[in-house]
Predict the 3D structure of the following.
Amino acid sequence: MPANSLPEFTIGCVSVVIPAHNAAKTITQTIASLLSERSAILECIVVDDGSIDETAAVVRACAVEFGFPVRLLSVRCLDPGAARNHGLSHASGKWVYFLDADDLHEAGGLRDLVTTGEGPLAPELVLGSYFIQREGRARDRFGHRHEWLSPERYLADRAVVIVMGSSLIRRDALDTRRFPDSLAYDEDTLFWTTLLASCRTAIIDVAVMTYNVSLQRSDDRLVHESRSRFERWRESLLALESLGISRAALRRREAFMAIRVARIHMRRGELVEAAHFLSVARTTPKTLADAYRWLRFRLKLALLRRSGGSVPT
């Protein structure tokens, strides 16, 4: 198939939704990475979520310079899940493609996702492989396998993570499904778990995007106001039981996240908070790997307390 062609019934069928907060430095490259997919894209909806930089002006300039069908929406959610939901409420394409404002689409990936989505299996969710780019390192490639993608396995962190920009979703499959809002983190995990529990899924062995990782930003979200944020997240997590996901699987995710938050607090010398989150994980069901991590961090916490905080984590 020529690089810029699609079967006629797939032309202009995708709504791209990009939440953006203070993304003036990166969003030009993000939008430019979509240009090769122009024939499939009906609209590119950029949700400017409370930016205080030049994000909106840069997006408008991209629309003019690239001749691209960009729609700019301005909100003040300060919440990636809510911003994506707002963009989704304005989407009119048959398919929805979420991409974050600091990531890059790989040329041809969207065409492959659409072609699979319009194939005989009629999936509602199509997952592609992707690259992860960490600062100062070569890109690593990650791909999915069907046997890894049960909701329970995904919650237990025993499947390859689904990242924004690596999937295509039928819009009518999202009529009653949205990202949890008012969450500082892991809202995407809960969203993907919901889709894995309820959608026909297809996988393609094509790298469709590059995910730029910021570990510092991720860690900051986990430990800022960590107790109140964790409780809001936990409430949304346990609500997934209504989908038929076992409570034990949900509680294992609770333990996984509590241990993760504890580890970051410990690394920063915040031992009271680390102890709190280890206590949260103490009585919850855990995978064998998480039970080992919990014991290891409990020992390190005890050593840190005895030594005045000099034991590395």
